[in-house]
């Protein structure tokens, strides 16, 4: 691959600009956009993220994180300037392929950073596999992308949806919470999160008395909360995120459940949602690969710099964006900006030890982070670390074959 003249390689650019001088005016005008691109020689980086809807804040945090990581290393990739492109994917799966193609076909990006929503990710994945464009996933944890449908050009800087919940069952059982209701949004992320919860909770001896769901991004929780009150489980476990998660915690408290039935979750529940949820979030327990209060110099330095730069507190999404940026910086540096040298680029990304605010992590063979999962508790509006719920947890990567 690296020896062929791909449309994105610098040598191809040279050929194009030289030949442009030789062609007639008519043909030249057809070639103009390509030549302009060639001459700029910038790395074309595309964000495909939600900037509207329930996950809008997640998209912003991710973009901030990416930009921060790259700016810290001089604002270039392998010595090349960057041209940025942006598409709002609205967390709308039906537009996933079309939106990915806006970046890949129309804007000819060298790398697509996206996205948050698992359903949309499947659209990006189709385009990434067909076009071969480098895709760094800053959030969406949909399982097949780093399992049976894994791809050499696709790397995740975040998690699989079942990773946090694989660490959820044991600490619940250790606190005597033997019967639980599971509640989520009905889409891939909720289903995947349930896979991890079911495995860990039943293995630890727990019983799931009921599975409840609302369609994404619906936030009409009332009927299900009434059902939970009637079921009287020892605990509720859930997957929700973004604006919907804040609403869920508020409705949970308003339904009188906050002080009666402990609420646990995949840790996204309390990421970027604590201000909005206020007192309703206090005491909520969760498992995730990050916590605000991680007491390491790396995390403290990251949090201070992020808050200074963006006038807001970072959350797990900012960290994942930051690590996506770090992967890109490391990969581009290894190939000295020649992102068309794919074999070397992928090898560099695969072997990077990411020095993350979440703690150091490495890439699994299937291109998903191997990372610690923390047990956290919301205290005074912060996600406070209670302990390490799972050390160096890897997704199974089942069915992934990369040659
Ligand atoms: C997903 O759709 O994969 C997803 C969305 C938001 C999260 C986590 C996972 O916080």
From TrEMBL:
Leucine-binding protein domain segment(s): 42-381
SUPFAM superfamilies: Periplasmic binding protein-like I
Domain of life: Bacteria
CDD domains according to UniProt: PBP1_RPA0668_benzoate-like (cd20014)
Pfam family of the protein (one): Peripla_BP_6
Family matches, as InterPro entries: BCAA_transport (IPR051010), Leu-bd (IPR028081), Peripla_BP_I (IPR028082), TAT_signal (IPR006311)
Record bears the keyword Metal-binding: no
Keywords, comma-separated and alphabetical: Signal
Keyword Chloroplast on entry: no
Family: Belongs to the leucine-binding protein family.
Protein name, entry field: ABC transporter substrate-binding protein
Species the sequence originates in: Ottowia pentelensis
């Amino acid at each position: 691959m690296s020896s062929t003249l791909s449309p994105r390689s610098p040598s191809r650019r040279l050929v194009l600009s030289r030949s442009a001088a030789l062609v007639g005016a008519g043909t030249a005008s057809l070639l103009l956009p390509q030549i302009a691109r060639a001459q700029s020689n910038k790395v074309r980086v595309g964000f495909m993220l939600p900037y509207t809807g329930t996950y809008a804040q997640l998209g912003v945090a991710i973009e901030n994180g990416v930009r921060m990581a790259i700016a810290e290393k001089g604002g270039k990739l392998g010595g090349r300037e960057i041209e940025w492109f942006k598409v709002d994917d609205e967390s709308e799966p039906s537009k996933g392929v079309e939106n990915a193609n806006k970046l890949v076909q129309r804007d000819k990006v060298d790398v697509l950073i996206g996205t948050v929503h698992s359903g949309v990710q499947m659209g990006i994945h189709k385009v990434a596999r067909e076009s071969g464009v480098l895709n760094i996933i800053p959030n969406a944890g949909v399982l097949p992308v780093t399992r049976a449908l894994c791809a050499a050009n696709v790397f995740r800087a975040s998690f699989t949806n079942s990773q946090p919940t694989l660490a959820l069952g044991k600490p619940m059982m250790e606190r005597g919470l033997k019967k639980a209701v599971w509640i989520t949004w009905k889409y891939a992320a909720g289903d995947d999160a349930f896979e991890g919860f079911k495995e860990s909770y039943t293995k630890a001896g727990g019983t799931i008395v009921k599975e409840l769901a609302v369609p994404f991004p619906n936030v009409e929780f009332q009927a299900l909360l009434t059902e939970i009150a009637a079921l009287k489980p020892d605990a509720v476990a859930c997957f929700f995120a973004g604006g919907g998660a804040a609403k869920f915690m508020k409705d949970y408290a308003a339904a009188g459940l906050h002080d009666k039935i402990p609420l646990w979750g995949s840790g996204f529940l309390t990421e970027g949602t604590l201000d909005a949820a206020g007192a309703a979030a206090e005491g909520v327990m969760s498992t995730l690969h990050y916590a605000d209060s991680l007491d390491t110099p790396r995390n403290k330095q990251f949090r201070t710099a992020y808050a200074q730069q963006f006038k807001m507190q970072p959350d797990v999404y900012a960290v994942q964006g930051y690590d996506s940026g770090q992967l890109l910086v490391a990969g581009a540096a290894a190939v000295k900006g020649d992102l068309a040298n794919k074999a070397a680029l992928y090898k560099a990304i695969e072997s990077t030890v990411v020095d993350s605010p979440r703690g150091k992590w490495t890439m699994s063979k299937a291109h998903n982070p191997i990372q610690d999962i923390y047990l956290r508790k919301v205290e005074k509006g912060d996600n406070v670390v209670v302990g390490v719920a799972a050390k160096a947890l890897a997704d199974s990567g089942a069915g992934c074959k990369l040659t």
